[in-house]
Write a structure and sequence with these properties.
The structure holds 2 protein chains of 2 kinds.
Chain A: H1 4-17, H2 20-35, H3 55-62, H4 65-105, H5 112-120, H6 123-158, H7 163-194, H8 199-212, H9 214-256, H10 267-308
Chain B: H1 6-32, H2 37-68, H3 73-78, E1 80-84, H4 92-115, H5 126-131, E2 133-137, H6 142-170, H7 172-194
Antiparallel strand pairs in B: 1-2
Chain lengths: ~325, ~200
């Protein structure tokens, strides 16, 4: 039975002691926060309406196709550059944090000057690993989809009674693969950075490791998530209490006089509220940064333990 | 090796940003001086195309300048240079990485990584530390030149913005017409499609 307590204890000590690693945590917390903003829904559907001639349509017709092409090309290039930059940022920060944590666990220095080049050296490999993961995940999804359709067709014709049983089995198998995939992804980054393996070698080694330590790794993930979430919740509640009380003092007079509300009369209250909100946002980012470092440390130690079956000192 | 002070770096940084800003403001002035709906929309389109392409081009130029001459436009005017610990200029990709990737880290928490140079003995920011670069003073007298250029750019921008405001005031009716038309188009093509009739 792996000693999860030892891993968590070591990660807490590492997170507290090696403050330069917080910088990477900050970067990762900030960039991960941005990724959830991609859900814009079907915005294009909004413009399927009337094609009634108006001022804009008239004008658009007068603009040369070259101008529109120039705009489209610029936007496409900007988007591609933006995607590439965000990918490089996250792989660099991730690689630097993983490499920095290795040094921290050996009680060595972890300044930005020391750890950043280690991350930079792994950007290419981590990007290739990301592509491998994407392609494999897509292949598995397609495999499940096509396999499911074929199986459903065959069973519907031959043995209709087995359909629900096979469907349950297929869903379970799918979840098994998704979890196995997630674990492999986390471990493969470590295999590439810590063991200097090529992306494909790192992936295959991590796939085997995740498979042979499937349930203990899931438990590690659950402990990691729960402890990170608990820390985040507790600190955010404290933060809310600290900021919400002064906030309430400034909000109550505005709400109680809402029908006679005048911006000029309450500008101080609004300013204080904005400052409190910004303070909350920054403190929250900082808390998430610590959680990122703690979580990455746990996975580093877990990877070392299951790949070398080493003892955590 | 004399490290650049926070003031020298601030002047250089603001010049770099103001160059792009001034050009953008100039395009807005063109927009403000437009006297027909077609001209307004054409200026707006030109402005968007400019912002997109200038953003890409400006970064490449800044990285090239750092590789060839040791610094961005602002740094060259202010007489400061980016060097490695061995005193050489940084490579093109390193300069791109510094501008696009590493600076993101310094900008977090209201530029904490930039202000770190006040604390650091080598006056390094976080993005300097991650790439082991230093910003050194090459031509001390140029600090004054930088300050003057910065002052001129600020003055120029104030005048441009003043002209923009008066231009917008003069052509207020045309803008109201464009905004009204845009609101109508939005209402007709978007809201109409999403209105749920009582029968649905």
């Amino acid at each position: 039975m792996p000693d999860y307590g030892k891993i968590i204890q070591k990660s807490i000590e590492t997170t507290k002691k090696f403050k330069w690693l917080w910088v990477y945590g900050l970067g990762l917390a900030a960039t991960a926060g941005g990724s959830s903003l991609s859900n814009f829904g079907n915005l294009s559907d909004s413009f399927k309406g009337d094609t009634k001639t108006n001022l804009f349509v008239d004008w658009a017709g007068k603009v040369s196709p070259q101008t529109w092409s120039l705009l489209a090309l610029g936007v496409v290039i900007s988007l591609l550059v933006g995607i590439a930059i965000s990918w490089v940022i996250s792989t660099w920060l991730n690689g630097s944090l993983i490499a920095g944590l290795k040094l921290a666990h050996q009680d060595k220095q972890t300044t930005l000057k020391i750890t950043s080049p280690l991350g930079i050296a792994k950007i290419k490999d981590l990007i290739v690993l990301g592509i491998i993961e994407f392609v494999l995940f897509l292949a598995i999804l397609i495999g499940f989809g096509v396999g499911g359709i074929i199986l459903a067709t065959v069973l519907a014709a031959a043995a209709r009674n087995f359909v629900p049983l096979v469907a349950i089995f297929a869903v379970l198998a799918f979840f098994f693969f998704v979890i196995q995939f997630g674990l492999t992804k986390v471990l493969a980054q470590r295999a590439v950075v810590l063991d200097n393996l090529s992306p494909w070698e790192g992936w295959t080694k991590s796939w085997r490791l995740a498979l042979s330590n499937y349930f203990p790794s899931i438990l590690m993930g659950i402990i990691n998530t729960v402890s990170g979430t608990a820390f985040g919740c507790v600190t955010n509640i404290v933060l809310l209490l600290v900021l919400a009380i002064p906030g309430a003092i400034f909000v109550v007079p505005m709400i109680s006089n809402i029908d006679k509300f005048q911006l000029s009369a309450y500008w101080v209250n609004i300013l204080v509220l904005v400052i409190l909100l910004i303070a909350f946002g920054l403190a929250n980012l900082f808390i998430r940064a610590l959680t990122v470092v703690f979580s990455a440390s746990n996975w580093n130690l877990w990877f070392e333990q299951i790949s070398k079956k080493g003892e955590i000192k | 090796m004399k490290y650049a002070s926070v003031w020298q770096r601030l002047i250089a940084g603001v010049i770099d940003r103001l160059v792009g800003f001034t050009l953008a403001v100039w395009f807005v002035l063109k927009l403000a001086q437009s006297t027909s709906v077609d001209a307004i929309l054409t200026s707006l389109l030109t402005y968007i195309i400019f912002v997109v392409w200038f953003g890409i081009g400006y970064l490449i130029i800044q990285a090239y300048l750092a590789t060839k001459f040791g610094g961005s436009l602002g740094k060259l005017i202010t007489g400061i240079e980016i060097t490695t610990s061995s005193g050489k200029y940084i490579s093109f990709w390193r300069a791109m990485f510094r501008e696009l990737v590493a600076q993101m880290l310094s900008n977090l928490l209201f530029g904490l990584g930039f202000w770190w140079l006040l604390k650091d003995q080598n006056k390094q920011t976080w993005h300097d530390m991650t790439l082991d670069t230093f910003v050194v003073v090459k031509r001390p007298a140029n600090t004054l030149v930088g300050a003057v250029v910065l002052g001129l750019l600020l003055l120029g921008n104030v005048m441009l913005i003043k002209n923009i405001v008066s231009g917008f005031n003069q052509n207020k009716n045309i803008y109201l017409e464009v905004i009204g038309e845009a609101a109508n188009t939005f209402e007709e093509s978007v809201l109409k499609n999403y209105t749920i009739s009582p029968g649905e």
